[in-house]
Amino acid sequence: MPIIINLDVMMARRKMSLNELSDKVGITISNLSILKTGKAKAIRIETLEAICKALDCQPGDILEFRD
């Protein structure tokens, strides 16, 4: 898949657990886990916005394109 999700990297940089991010964003741990492992087929813009606010980052810090 050419789009790589670096959620785990940003969480590690911010020293934030999956439980903590789940509480801040309002998304279930299982859905965040799907994103974190790169198994997600899509992400809502609202979700991406909430994650960026919680991790104080930009969408490009989480999403990466690799050809």
From TrEMBL:
Domain of life: Bacteria
SMART domains given in the database record: HTH_XRE (SM00530)
Alphabetical list of SUPFAM superfamilies matching this protein: lambda repressor-like DNA-binding domains
Boundaries of every HTH cro/C1-type domain copy: 7-62
Protein name: Helix-turn-helix domain-containing protein
Organism: Mucilaginibacter lutimaris
Higher taxonomy: Bacteria, Pseudomonadati, Bacteroidota, Sphingobacteriia, Sphingobacteriales
